[in-house]
Amino acid sequence: MHAPAKKTTAPVRITRIVVAPLLGESPPGGWSNEIKADDSIHALIAVHTDAGITGFGSAFTDGRLVEAAAKVLEPLLLGENALEPERVSEKLHQNTFWMGRGGSLTHAISGIDIALWDILGKVTGLSIGRLAGGRYTDRVTPYCSLLMTEPSAMGDEIISFRDQGFKAFKIGWGPFGRRDDFKLDEAIVDAARRALPEGGKLMVDAGGSDAFWPNGLKWALRTADMLADHDVYWFEEPLKPDAIDDFVVLRNQSKLPIAGGEVLTRRQAYIPFLTQGAFDIVQPDVTKVGGLSEQRRIARLAEDFGVRYVGHGWNTALGLAADLQLAAALPNVDLVEYIGGSAYVDNIMAKPFSLDADGMLTIPDLPGLGVTLDPDRVAQYTPDAASLFDGG
């Protein structure tokens, strides 16, 4: 006789979506038209359910746009089963493509999808890493992501975070490539390199997705040679994000790995970059690309093409938590991005992230994202904090 089948988990219905734009401590981005502390570039999202379980996510876009998108998406979400994140998120994508695939709607869906995975984990008692395929690793190295400064200050900036335990660093944007001064660019990199801890890694992000990026393929080829001479680990966004043919040439000729893809959204946008060989390292952002569901598919697709996946993580503690869970669930993911000094990473959780003696982060093996927001801390950065935690 066969044992009787166990009863399936009852649906957990979505009752409400809440968006809380983060304001007041938005970190500098290095953009030409620089953001201000009170500008909204990230928003937290809460998905409430009839089971009294709330999932949390994060979206990388102006909070006002996330709020508007949530109003559009809510009729498609209310009453849906929150335990089916991939299906529900795909429903949102499929029913809104005609409004513009890849824009603010997709960014908002990203935060919703992360929240749905968080709910699934809380209901089942499993971490997202286990739900998404298992745990290949228990910890990962965070690389401290910093803006470039003048050479005289760059080394001191690295040292301040080195003293906090970071072993790997990415420097980017700022004056690099923007002053037609190759010697300045090299001096910044040299200063950072000399400040690294023993055995430390250094990555360089040109920020080619900045407004009116002035440089092209020849600059990128010359700069790649210089960075290789300074033992830089990878060269990120050296070209305008849509210059796929130039990326292919650069990747073929560069002595160091070429990384990019942070501005692309949904898996369809990545296919030509992967099939044509534009990247050594692909960098989707879980809070923009479509959430964990889409991030995992892109990472697996990249793996099939022999392209390394390292998520772009210039977002919030919830984005970092999602990246950590996916780092556990995928093979050969050994780095996650960690914004240096961002209040939205360091000061919104009940238990902030902390590095171990090896400069690594332990990946939580707790239900869902494995982290807990602190309502009082969140309230410092949004007027809508209470509604995030109140099911209504």
Global outline = globular
Q: What would CATH call the class of the largest domain?
A: Alpha Beta
Report the β-strand fraction as a percent range.
5-15%
Taking pLDDT < 50 over at least 5 consecutive residues as the criterion, the unreliable ranges are: none
> So, the CATH homologous superfamily of the largest domain?
Enolase-like C-terminal domain
* Structural class by helix and strand composition: alpha/beta
Q: Helix segment count?
A: 14
Q: Give the ordered list of helices and strands.
A: EEEHHHHEHEHEHEHEHEHEHEHEHH
Number of domains: 2
Helix content: 25-40%
For the record, give the distance between the C-alpha atoms at the N and C termini, rounded to a whole number: 48 Å
Largest sheet: 9 strands, mixed
Instruction: Return the CATH topology of the largest domain.
Output: TIM Barrel
DSSP strand tally: 12
Question: Would you mind describing this structure in some detail?
Answer:
Helices cover 38% and strands 14% of the residues. It has 392 residues and is α/β, with parallel strands linked by helices. The chain has 2 domains: 127 residues, 2-Layer Sandwich (Enolase-like, domain 1), CATH 3.30.390.10; 233 residues, Alpha-Beta Barrel (TIM Barrel). β5, α6 and β6 form a beta-alpha-beta unit. It is globular, with a radius of gyration of 21 Å. The model has no long low-confidence stretch (mean pLDDT 94).
